[in-house]
Structures
1.
Amino acid sequence: MLKHKKMIVIVFSILAVIGGIAQFGVSVNYNMTDYLPANAPSTVAIDVMDEEFSGNIANTRVMIKDVNIQEALQMKKQLSEVDGISGVMWLDDLVDLKTPLELVDEDILDTYYKNNHALFTFEVAEGKEVPVTDEIYNIIGEENALAGDALDVALSQKATGQETFNAAAILVPIIILILLLSTRSWIEPVFFLIAIGISILINLGTNLFVGEISFISQSVAPILQLAVSLDYAIFLLHRFDDYKDRIEDPTEAMTLAIKRSFPAITASAATTFFGFMALTFMDFEIGADLGINLVKGILLSFISIMIFLPALTLLLFPLIEKTRHKQWVPNKYNIGKHLIKLRIPVLILIAIILVPAFIAQSKTNFIYGMGDIPENTRAGQDTIQIDEAFDKFTPLVLLVPEGDLAREDKLTSELDRLPEIKSIISYTSAVGIAIPPEYLAESAKDQFFSENYSRIILNATTDTEGKQAFAFVDKVREITEKYYGDTFHATGESVTLSDMKVIVKKDNTLVNILTVVAIGLVLLITFKSISMPIVLLLTIQASVWINLAVPYFSNDPLVYIGYLIISIVQLAATVDYGILFSESYTNFRQEMSAKDAIKKTINENIFSIAVPASILSSVGFILWFTSSDPIISSIGILLGRGTLLAFTLVVLLLPALLLVFDRIIEKTTWKPNFYKKRK
């Protein structure tokens, strides 16, 4: 294979160019609700409403300050003419404005016109959020306010590309610096990045066959692929360095390096591969979206490093020799004898904190949506202004069987008594049961009725999520079920997030079990041992639980999607450190006692583990620092902190466990050939 190195480099380069061009044809989805399963109640409700009614739920609010009725009507006309806006609703849609305002129902009036401020609600078409919100800002100027889901999506779209670029601009120099400190050539770090970069471009291009990816995958997958698979390249070229110092022919040295590093790289890639594969089993399809991207990425990175990187290295080997420098940071340290003395305190400390950490990580206050917009932005300030003037606005839509106005009136009357309800917009509340629907104009009638359903819009003052919001959703469903059984549908952001909470909690249990089982099987095959996978998984899983417990003790709400993803990613990505450490230990254990083998393993491997750990933690902290999106930011801080915890436990807890369970490991491993001191 290495005889065709020039052809290999050309083929991979062409594929990377094609992938780089193809990625621009991949559409990005910013709507989290699209990833709920098709049979989720709120998803079914949205599908029914799309079929039955022309207008969807309002996802945007605009507040115009200090206007009279005529000025408000003129503003409504301007907003209605914007391409991408539909269903602009204001006071005139519910009451006859010839009626004195003093006679208008107070709840309805306060929902749309209060203290000379007018509040308009409407829907922005999916895919047009950026141009529409930009046009709205042009219409309303600096003094008025805009808020809602459409604006959140628009801000995410604008920020994602720029923030990904910003993260890469900070990350790449840091990675190059770390690699320069750990290699002996100025050009080797560039080879690392080229090999991974080519696999990333090919991976991005293959998304064209997927059709659409989520903004989370677009933001996180390329950077995670870089950070997680970079250690494969480090393992390979470090082996190559060792052999070429002893073997004159670089091709022969590379062949031996590939053979020697293949088992460790394959085991590392396999654990990561199957860990990410577990994400694809989530009912909440954002997991499958990210999982497929990461699985493709790991596979392509593995192929690139085992085929392309050796070919590129040999092709440009003279350049490596010309750019030699001494290794600034030593790769071996005499600290094993000191760290091994900490084994008893470490075991006691972990034993004390592990159970509380496990309990705390499941008790964290979770956020299931996009999180709040920062208050120091215009969007954040606009939201505060609108909430202060008109209270919070969380619409919830009920679709009930059409044809029984008396029953609908009883339902709306009971719902109206709920303290969270600000106003109800329905035929019976706006028109009354005394007037038959046939007397209304068709356009007015279509707001309330379809062929099969009557639509009731509840305007609530709850947040979109949280204990109060979800309890309110449950109460509305309970009351409606009393009148209509299971023949009704409910939708709205609170309903969707309530469904999401139920679904992702089930996903969490399933995915964690699949991840542990899959990685455990890979470790079982790798080490031919029953006990070694348990020791390794306990070490890394302990770091995961401690990491995810921190938000509980600091009382910081955590975006659940970030929690769910990182509980898999941290385990799958950092178990490589344990594999490298344990593989080295079992080799040394064949030549010396357990204690001496641990000391030597620490001395010779702490540097090899520290390099990828520092890169992966840098990725996490940079994502956290550069991203304004709460989901991406939470993934970043959890990844950065989790990687440091995993590294710490691998060099402190894992040696202690290997010593404690040395005899058990020997008895439960096939042909361990452990050294035994002669009597």
2.
Amino acid sequence: MNKNGQKSRALPPTHLEIPDFIIELLKQRGITGKNNVSSFLYPQLKNLPNPPLMENLEVAAALILEHIADQNQIVIWGDYDVDGTTGTALLVNFFKEIGIEVKWHIPGRLTEGYGLNTAWFRDNISTFKSKRFLLITVDSGVSNAEEIQYIKDLGGHVIVTDHHVIPESGLPECIVLNPEQASCKLKKEKLAGVGVAFYLVAGLRAAMSTDNRLQHLVKDLNLKSFLGFVALGTVSDMVELTTTNRILVRAGTEVMDSPKFRGLQALLHSSDIFGTEISSEDIGFLIGPKINAAGRLGDSRVVVELFTTDDDVEIKTKIKKLERLNQKRKDLCKEGADTAFSEICRQDTGKNKNCVVYGDYHLGVAGIVASKLVEFSKVPSIVLAEQHVAGGEKIYKGSGRSVDGINLIAALSKCSSAIEKFGGHEMAVGLTVAENQLDNFLKLFTKEIQSQFENRKIVHTIGPDIECSVEDVMNENSLHYLSLLEPFGRHNPQPKFYDRSVQVIHAKTVGHGADHLNMTIRGVYSNHKGIGFGLGEKISDVQEEPNRSLIFTPTKNRFRGTVSWQVRVLSL
């Protein structure tokens, strides 16, 4: 532990020098000078911006204290993705810790859709313990002005915690915690929804600690234990890894080595990553997809239930349910991708510069299938799932994903006359199109995307960050300092290296359909295990010519409770 009580990543036992290639990587990312390098490699919780810098935070905390003192009903409303469910779990657990029972709700993605809906309040208000009540949203609400007014008319006060772009129509008439507000001093920190929720909790604890009636409730409360939720939601939501987000995520992954909350412990155990140093890759590829599977298939409640219970039997039941949902998500993705790939073979994606498929797809996995189409076709892709509405009419709802240099939300704005509703950002969108507007939408969208390609200036490559041999990267000292570059994500991508001369002494294909290439790379003192996902077709080339150049990155291999480093080959 360091002097702040924060667990630190240990220094390597032998070599203490920072490798030259690490210094070069940091320089490429704009980090130079001894103090800046040290701050980046060893982020400290004490350097987080103070909670009062969040616009409206102190007002929000005061309102919550008022409702606590009056014993009014408090309702938490979260989004169904990882960011929303972890933020909801964070708030529910905080109130639980201080002895306040709250109601919470996660809307069903397939039945209720995104954001607040008035029907739930109309149907559930009779169960509230008081006529006056307080609603706190998580990762949603900033675009729900109409619904918020309805809730206020019912007798509710509303605090919105969100991080999405402020709508052109302006803010809803309530207390809003959203760093996107122009006057918010945390705007540049790009907090995820769960990050905003954490700042609310931090501000609330500070307010309670000075209130004679309530200070005993937070006397021994350590907010650090909640940071595992912040790390999960922040990494999964792929927000920019600003200085503040980096501090929060690093501390959160360290807390997850031995988390306080038993449901989170169980989830890590089920993913074979408990009790070890957890990386952003573990969150992005092992934990996040399990949590997201519940939301995609319309059962996000199971996530919050798992994270807020202490009952061992219930925890086991929820873990098994998440595993089943995740497997179903995988099966639906494969089925949807197979159908979509067959469809795009009949499209001229090279000429159209886009790919749009529609029909009998599962709405919950539309975004994942769209991502797979982008990987395959290298053009913006949209997957629209057919939905039946009242009167026998059809609409198409779905998701789109883009490529570097093509602004998907701007393209949809130009096609708005043919779209019922849409939202998102440059790289990912959601949309709804009426059946009678589908052909018109396809024409307008193709025209706009073709126009953007003509003016496209960004060319994406998978080129390496730096030339460095496998041998120099895959040693104890180098791997230690590479782990200190964590967390990886937007604005701090996982580094890629180029080795101009390696010898592959063994290679074989693995995985379903022999898709992947498993190999052994000759080393000086010991050989290095390597894996090339999607490179199975290279097996003959490698066997015929084992002396290769390659682009790679180090990665951890987790198998039956053991962890080892291996070379992830990206290109050879």
